[in-house]
Amino acid sequence: MTAEVEETLKRIQSHKGVIGTMVVNAEGIPIRTTLDNSTTVQYAGLLHHLTMKAKSTVRDIDPQNDLTFLRIRSKKHEIMVAPDKEYLLIVIQNPCE
Amino acid sequence: MAPKQKKKSSRRKKSPKPILAASEDMEPVNMESMGHPEIYPLVLTTKTQEIFNCRIDEDITDEQPYKLINKEDIFEDLRNRAAVSDFHPVKKIVQEYPGNELLLVYDKDFKYGLNFYLIGTEEGKENYLNPPEVSEEQEEYKEYIPEDVYIYKPPVSKPWVSLGSEKEIEEASVTESTKQITYMISRKRSEFGAPIKFSDQNASSVKDAYIECTAYPDKNFTLKQLEKDVGMQVIPQIKDISTQTKWTYPKNATTQYYPREFSEEEKETLKQSKPLVDFLNNASISVEIALQQNEITNTFIDDWKHLAEEEGTFGDKTDTHLKEYQSFTDLHSPTEKMITCVSWHPTIYGLIAVSVAVRLSFEDRVHFSGKLLLQPSLILFWSFSDPIHPQLMLESPDDIFCFKFCPSDPNIIAGGCINGQIVMWDITTHADRIENVKAGGSRSKKATLKPMFLLEPESNKEAMYIRHCAVSSIENGHKKVITDIHWLSDTFEINRMGSVFENRSGICCQLVTCSHNMFWDIRPQKPLTPQTTEKKKEENIEIPFDVPSTFLHLDLSWKPLTKVRLSKGETSLDHCPTKISLKEDHLLCKTQDKVLAQSKTAKAEEMNPYHNLESGMPNLLKPIDDFCTKFFVGTEEGEVIYTDWKMEKDPETGRLMPKKPVSLHTIHDGIVHTIQRSPFYDDIILTVGGWNVAIWKESVMTGPLLQSCCAPKRYTSGHWSLTRPGVFYIGREDGYIDIWDLLEKTHEPAQSQNICITMITCIKPWIFSSKQQFIAIADYYGTLHILEIPWTLSRPSTNEMTSINHYFEREVKHLEYVEQRKKIREQEKKEMEQEMAKKKVKIYQKSKEQMEAELKMDYESYLELEKTVLINLGLIKVTEKGSYSDVM
Predict the structure, then answer these.
(1) Could you confirm whether the keyword Zinc-finger appears in this record (chain B) (predicted)?
(2) Would you tell me which residues 29-88 of chain A have a C-beta closer than 8 angstroms to some C-beta of chain B?
(3) What is the three-class DSSP state of B458?
(4) Would the CB atoms of B261 and A30 count as touching at under 8 Å?
């Protein structure tokens, strides 16, 4: 089991331009991460709130809809959040060379 | 009167007769119209006057303006002159005159129209003569009275007749319509002045105390509204609640928190949980799709934007020439001077300092040394606002060949002389003069319109001569001309060993000069006791009064801190360095920053740290480790040396010896006059000398990254561009500037522009603002040209840094490749040589055998030849026929 988890995360991390990957639980507490602790905690806390907000927005507009993926493109890199009922997968990638 | 009238009427009847005969019948005109019927005006000519002796002003005067004339005389005149006679018109009067004498009166005032008049009646004559004046007046008065004499009668009253004016008067008058009513009110005397009591009263209780207008519905004004326009809006439920609180004062409140985290075991358990695995499997699919999307293409790039260059150019993009802005020449100096060094003032805009030296060779200097002593050697400060007068003139004992502003205090200037002395100036007292130059620019513009000879005696325009503050000691200083001088940065210090310490004072206090490479410190060194007495004796020299005493402790006794000699290895000769380039310090530990900041704040109250230098060097300083003490040196022979200034102990002799140079290259064919680090890269150095240019990288010591081929003209000065990493300027000896752009061409200059007719001695660019960049070019004839750098040369293109980086990396790789190739070539060469050697050996052996075989063949052929010859000669007889055929 763990090997599978490890392997998936490793595969994601090895993509071109990926800076960091982290798995966060529903309350925003990080479970697995490749970045240092302070950065992870910051990302986890902030993105958890943002994901909740995005989810509620989508559901307010159409209650039968749901959030599947969240991508935030900034000047320097792109943050991708895959939400779930219990967990959050956050990946940070630098798209340009 | 009546007979006259009758006469008139009788005469009138005769008037309609023809004119010819009218002369006799013409009526005499009399003055009846004027009330004098007896007066007949006459014109008497002078002839008549003579005849009758009534000449004007002789016989007839003012007192007696009349003459009695006999009738017979008149008749005689009439008979004599007939119609011509003046009395002809009054002939009838004269004939009918009763008396004998007629009165002729001179009418001076022409009262009756003519100059004489005749009185035709006796009465008139009498009246005129007796009494002459009074009677006339009375006569005249009486004549003016109208004939109807009015007799005054007093008015008689008649009864009044009314014409209706009474009614009008009645209407206009004011009368009382009613009779006036009189009242008399009385009151008891005692009630006067009694106190008054007021009391309330209900208005309704008293009858007629008030009048009411009650409202009532008036049917004229009621309208029934049949249509109504109403708007509605839905709003969320709002609740407005407010409370009142006590406001005391704001308090700072902080919270401290730490994030919740899982412990390691929890993490492990979670990792193994199935939901996580499922989640990851699901999520990773979409995540990987997204990642791949990003890898394929960047959808947010604006290709057009990235294709274009930067926006907004000032000025023409095609204009690539340096534009002449201003030029300065010292017009007051008697001899011809050349400019040796140029430096922009670090803080003040528009101020540039120039050192001038006399343009003579060494022999000429010695020859004219007496004359040269009298002329002061100067550093001139020029300002843009005044191209004729220098703002300041700094005096020095001898010609200055290089000088620099102190980076931490621009009022301190250090210069190197031709005789090997260092000269220091302190211009803090004159700092406000040069700072106000730009403010007084408008004033000076007017002044420059006048011709030069009028400007001389202006007192406020005179440039001040400032004497130097201190010079180094001659015995301990350089023996040759100082070609380069640098201030060491204010972050580190050097001690006698050459090892580096931190600099606590926060100011630049050490110098490096180059003609034997010496380090100097501008603070007084601790003198050893036996020397103090000698020094005191020497220091009793009088100081000129306007020289600041900043560096008094150094004057004439300044010794260098350390000396660095560059020996040439085995020989005892030294290199002659001409320019050096120190590593600009970018290494600073963080602790050092704090220390410096502290010391700087402590010194904020002090006036100027440079004035308190006499405290001497502090003893305890922290040494800076791993500071790079290596630097580049360019020599007179054209070599570029990379060496260390730290001294090391020679293990054999125990003395302090300078280290051997790390690398030495002879690249240039002439004296190296420019070594400069690029302002963008720490380790890229430009060296210019002789006929070519070289670019070096500090860590790569195998050779220069770029070495240009020999130019047709000698290069005499060079400088990097301050804003573009791949551009540098080289000055030639024929007055041309070559502008090299490494992105355009690396084998030759990109541009060449003529500046002046003679050798360019110094180039210094300077940035004023983002739009303006100037370059100062000094030439051999003493003129300083200021040119403006066009937009294309001052603005770097977007990727210029990266491109230049790539270029340098490529060049480094190229050098490495060349090195490797060299090795390979060496190997190949060796192999080839071996092969060649082998080949030679073989050939040699072969030829020996061949030689023998050949010899044999020759011998046999010789024998044959001998035989034939002998036969031909007949010495050997041909015995057999076979032998004949053989011979044939």
Answers:
(1) no
(2) 29-32, 41, 44-45, 68-69, 71, 73, 78, 80, 82, 84, 86-87
(3) coil
(4) yes
pLDDT over 60 (residue B846): yes
Could you tell me where the DSSP H helices lie in B52-147? 71-81, 91-96, 122-129, 134-144
CA-nearest of B827, B782, B817, B821 to B327 is B782
Rounded CA gap, B501 and B524, in Å?
Answer: 18
Query: Residue B571, exposed/middle/buried by CB under 10 A (0-12, 13-18, 19+)?
Result: exposed
Show the domain range for A58: 1-96
Q: What is the rounded distance in angstroms from the CA atom of residue B594 to the CA atom of residue B589? A: 9
Q: What is the dihedral of CA B745, B749, B750, B756, to 10 degrees?
A: 180
Find the CATH number of the domain harbouring A8. 3.30.450.30
pTM for the model stands at: 0.52
CA B621, CA B599: separation in Å to the nearest integer?
13
Asked whether B459 and B388 are in contact (CB, 8 A), the reply is: no
Residue, of B201 and B449, whose pLDDT is higher: B201
Name the residue among A47, A9, A42, A48 with its Cα closest to residue A26: A48
| Joined tokens for residue B451 | 């011709």
Question: What is the Cα–Cα distance from B370 to B843, expressed in whole angstroms?
Answer: 78
Interface pTM, i.e. ipTM: 0.85
pLDDT for residue B777 is more than 80: yes
Best probe of the A interface among B264, B279, B303, by most A CBs < 10 A, is B279
Neighbouring CB atoms inside 10 A of B698's CB total 18
Which one of B259, B271, B275 has the shortest CB-CB distance to A2?
B271
Chain B partners within 8 Å of A97 (Cβ): none
Angular region, B113: left φ>0, alpha ψ -120 to 50, beta rest = left
Q: Are A9 and A1 in contact (CB under 8 A)?
A: no
pLDDT of residue A6: 87
Structure tokens given for B395: 């005096």
> What are the counts of helices (DSSP H) followed by strands (DSSP E) for chain A?
2, 5
CB B404 within 8 A of CB B413: yes
Residue among B455, B431, B453 nearest B445 (CA): B455
Q: Are strands B392-396 and B464-466 parallel, antiparallel or unpaired?
A: parallel
**CB B559 within 8 Å of CB B523:** no
The Cα B472–Cα B397 span in angstroms is 11
Q: What is the CA radius of gyration of chain A?
A: 14
Pair of tokens at residue B188? 């008891």
3-state secondary structure of B767: strand
Cα separation, A95 vs A90, in Å, equals: 15
3-class DSSP assignment, residue B134: helix
**B592 in Cβ contact with B491 (< 8 Å):** yes
| Cα angle value B231/B236/B242 (rounded, 5°) | 115
What is the amino acid identity at position B685?
I
At B23 the pLDDT is 44
> pLDDT confidence of B869, banded at 50, 70, 90?
very high
pLDDT reported for residue B443 = 38
pLDDT: which is higher, B28 or B618: B28
Please tell me the total count of domains within chain A.
1
Task: DSSP letter for B297, please.
Answer: -
Alpha carbons B694 and B665: distance in angstroms, whole number: 11
**AA identity, residue B129:** L
